[in-house]
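Bench log, entry 3. Co-assembly request; chain sequences pasted below exactly as received.
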Amino acid sequence: MSKIIVTEDEGERLDIELEESIIRRNMLLAEENRRILDNYGIKAIDVMGATGSGKTTLIIQICKRLKDRYRIAVIKGDLTSSIDSDMILKEGVKSVQVNTGRECHLDASQIRKALEKLELSSLDLIFIENVGNLICPAEFPLGSHKRIVVISITEGPYTVIKHPFMFMDADIVVINKMDLAEAMKVDSDKLVQDIRSINPRANVVKAICRDGIGIDDIIHALNL
Amino acid sequence: MHEFSIASQIISIALAEAKRRYAKRVLEIKIRIGKFSFINPDQLKFSLEAIASMEPSLNGVVFSVSEEDAVAKCIECNYQWIVECKDNPLYHYSPPIVRCPRCNNISKLVKGRDCVIEGICIEV
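Structure output for the full assembly:
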């Protein structure tokens, strides 16, 4: 019996069109995260800001006030350490640490994996603390319902105009460490003005997170 | 920075497609990045080459990277125009706030912020 073997010519080149957007891939994953959260009736809040701006302190202060009313978990992105997660755990709030290793931001697929580690049916609220960075996280939506950007007086008077993109999609901007404004000679009203010129619909709250000042306003702005 | 994760995603898309088509090897990967994307083309190429060097089926692969113009659209009057992109390294991580040349309102970039794998050329 003769056998017919069909082969393609040796070394044939084939052009394949893909047109697949890397940015859109993350966006679709983020939308999927949002659907998962909505299915469980969970509200997720993305907290972004530079290293040392006070993201963890803000989350801890909010947790202190809300942990009796809501079941809360924190997803925490960091390059390597678990210092912040340990602080959050002390508050009796569940915490998932995502070590991003060489990455400068959290992305939607990492959040998806973190969500798998949580018992979603027993949660009302998730805070996602992004990697300390005012540049990259703006580009990678995670699927959260609200975005908070924390800046601090110690970052100087130009932190908003230097990173405008970060503030464009923020729902709430916290100006932290207000007690240092005078010593730093930073005009916080000018920072508010800069934020408004980029994003007129953002809620701006001046705060001293360490001392719990301004936290209630932030909770109010989150509709919690 | 994030160029590495973008590069790994590009490579994994290309390899998956090549495998699906029983390719012997991948000859070329075509990528398009927006002029106001946050991706530094040199860093992206460096990461792509580093990853490709560990993958036998990508031996000798050529990365063709093209740029896409940035287009803005006014949120008030809907006017669209191509935004002049001066070579400012700052734009790689923070695109400028653009204002409409007609009504001076804040406008959104509708094109030029993406990173797309256009296609691959394989040997079968």
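The interface with chain B takes residues 8, 11-25, 102-105, 107, 135-136, 139, 162-166, 198 of chain A (CB under 8 Å). The mean pLDDT of chain A is 89.
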